[in-house]
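During the second half of the funding period, the structural biology subgroup turned its attention to how the target accommodates small molecules. The most pressing case was zinc ion, which had performed well in the primary screen but for which no bound structure existed. We therefore specified the complex as follows and requested a full 3D prediction, including the ligand pose.
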Amino acid sequence: MKGKIAPSLMCVDLMNVERDIKILEEAEVDYLHIDIMDNHFVPNVTLGFDFIDAIRKITHLPLDIHLMIENPENSLSYIKNCSPKDIVSLHYESTPHIHRALALVKGLGAKAGVAINPGTPIQVLEDLLPDIDVVLVMTVNPGFAGQQLVPATLNKISKLRKMLDESGHGHIEIEVDGNVSFEKAKLMYECGADIYVGGSSSVFHKDSSILENSQKMREIVNA
Ligand code: DX5
Ligand code: ZN
């Protein structure tokens, strides 16, 4: 199985975004992961909706937009010009009206993803499976780069893969986000993950270049 790589632009050098995106294109990564935060659902604020528009002007890579905002259904209209290859994920915990929010994501023309925090059990996804293309499993509590993996999330990936396959939803992709180091990516691959968010612990690891790190990640997730 071929895994997909989604480098997290939260970890890019903001003074050199265009240069680094060209390197990621050369490395043939699959998505650009863009974290949108609101300082309420998570304590931090990182990239915003205008950043998405700016990135679309300089790349044809599909975008993987991860919304960490409360009541995302109120803000989805700020995401424009989606392609059917883009993913827009919102958190299960961020709205009491998840089906309405997912319908709005579909209306944008993107694939719909549901993200779950490390403490949220996979059973909450059961009634959402017919409406989603991706489950984004947070492997750290969202909001910051450079955190340590919550170990219980590895077993969660395996259980989710089983649940998806056994319920006739094997086409739904599992994305993993948070401390996806080279070492942990290998374990996540064995658990059945499909899309790997590369942050400070892999693609943007300081020990090597973005190009070399991306190639190393590719070898791990294409084993
Ligand atoms: C938050 C982000 C981070 C981050 C991951 O949703 O996507 O999880 O960039 O990178 P690490 O954990 O490797 O710094
Ligand atoms: Zn993310």
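Two results from this model are relevant to the next phase. The chain has a mean pLDDT of 97. The longest helix spans residues 152-166.
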